Amino acid sequence: MAESENNLAPLAAKLEALLFVTAEPAQTSQLAAALETTTTEIEQGLKALEASLESRGLRIQRHGGRVQLTTAPEYAELVERFLGLEATTRLSRSALETLAIIAFQQPVTRPQVDQIRGVNSDSMMKNLLNKGLIIEAGRTDGPGRPILYSTTPEFLQHFGINSIRDLPPLELAQEEEKPEVSLLKG
Q1: Do 65 and 112 lie in a common domain?
Q2: 149 - beta bridge partners?
Q3: Same domain for 161 and 104
Q4: Which of 26, 66, 113, 136 has the CA that lies 20 to 30 A from 46?
């Protein structure tokens, strides 16, 4: 085994320990500073840790350049039952539609969501903000400086995914080609 491979196991274990005790997602630069190493080595250690966790009850979750240790989504119901937590809140079709637009287009403004949905999304956006599934991620430079929205780590946990990159590919419905109709003047 190469010396660099040999060093990954202890780094992965150190990363697991740090991620286990942190209450909030950590930036790779914070982990690098704490372990006195580079962010490149941290990424290698995180990949080794992810691989070692595949057959266990924990996962690495990535969101917005931050990482955290979470329970595996397939054990969510078991954990909820053990802890006596309420079942995961169900979302309406409108809320899911709004959330999907934000997830795939983020960061996105409410007017952009409204344009895609074809209806006012104000109440859906407030609902998703209250549930902690989306956050205000800044403002655009355009007129009125509308608020930009993006998803949260809670969104990832709710849907049992580790990263936004794990979302399925977006397949836009293509309109059927319509034959050209010419009008005869006569």
Answers
A1: no
A2: 108, 136
A3: yes
A4: 136
Q: What is the spatial distance between Cα 59 and Cα 49, in angstroms, rounded to a whole number?
A: 9
Nearby residues of 14 by Cβ (< 8 Å), 6 or more positions away:
35, 45
Each residue of 41-79: pLDDT tens digit? 999 999 999 999 999 999 999 988 899 998 888 887 788
Q: Are 152 and 132 in contact (CB under 8 A)?
A: yes
Whole-prediction pTM: 0.55
Q: Would you tell me how many other CB atoms lie within 10 Å of the CB of residue 74?
A: 10
pLDDT in tens, 131-167: 889 999 999 988 888 999 999 988 887 787 878 888 8
- Spatial separation of the C-alpha atoms in residues 92 and 147, rounded to whole Å: 23
